[in-house]
Amino acid sequence: MKTLSPRLNWFGLAAGIIILIVLVISFYVPWWQLTVGQDLVKVNASPVNTNFGLFGKQFTVPLIWATNLVSILTLTASGVVMLVYSIFPAKSYSKELLGFSYKKPLYILILFVSGLLVITAIAGVLGFSIPLVGSTNFAVPTQFIPSNFAITALVSGSFQLPFYLAIVAAALCIAARLYHQRATGITNHASSTSASTNVTQK
């Protein structure tokens, strides 16, 4: 006979909390930031809030805004569902809740990094040097400007705090999945009883 002892999945609980923290912080702090010159051009990129700055003026792209909205809803659902699962890991529906929530932060993280890599690769093909991390001198390729002109500026790229918190959240989600069996608190008394009976008979 199987009995259930109420427990918490502490990895999942921490993951759900951090997911929601990442969501809130990402409205104000980007996951990755690119600056060209002295705030001449600024890119604030994250799955939640991506915007661009030109000469100090901020603007967004509608298509990117729509993508951000999908990410907001996805992270919100993932964080809330993970919290519910973590409080009731032994319920009959808990495994489905875990399956719904634990992969999403990792997928968003992978898609975000992949998008950055694709953009920087395309920029490299066009002759623009965009560093993901660090600084470099940016020179506009000659095919984009009149002859006898040279335009250069310092370009800096850096990952910000929410990006690293997202990595922690994704790792905790995976840990919650691995810990699920123990978090359910299921002990098979039937097996142990059967084993002790066999020993006694011998």
Written description of the protein model:
- With 202 residues, this protein is of the alpha+beta class.
- It has one domain: Butyryl-CoA Dehydrogenase, subunit A, domain 3 (Up-down Bundle).
- The protein contains six helices and eight strands; from the N terminus they run E-H-E-E-E-E-H-H-H-E-E-H-E-H.
- It has helices at 10-25, 62-87, 94-101, 104-125, 161-183, 189-201, and strands spanning 2-4, 32-36, 41-45, 51-54, 57-59, 134-139, 152-159, 186-188.
- The strands form two sheets. It has a six-stranded antiparallel β-sheet. A two-stranded antiparallel ribbon has the order 1-8.
- The longest helix is centred in the middle third of the chain and has 26 residues, at 62-87.
- The radius of gyration is 24 Å and the shape is elongated.
- The relative contact order is 0.20.
- Residues 1-5 and 187-202 have low confidence and may be disordered.
Q: Any idea of the CATH class?
A: Mainly Alpha
Task: Characterize the overall form.
Answer: elongated
The run of helices and strands is EHEEEEHHHEEHEH
**Lateral arrangement of strands in the main beta sheet:** 5-4-3-2-7-6
Which radius of gyration do the C-alpha atoms yield?
A: 24 Å
Task: Please report the total strand number as a whole number.
Answer: 8
**Separation, N- and C-terminal Cα atoms:** 23 Å
The low-confidence parts are 1-5, 187-202
The helix content, as a percent range, equals 40-55%
Instruction: Give me the CATH fold name.
Output: Butyryl-CoA Dehydrogenase, subunit A, domain 3
Mean pLDDT: 83
Q: Number of DSSP helices? A: 6
Q: Beta-strand level of the residues, as a percent range?
A: 15-25%
The structural domain count equals 1
Q: What class do helices, strands and sheet pairing give? A: alpha+beta
Largest sheet: 6 strands, antiparallel
How does CATH name the architecture?
Up-down Bundle
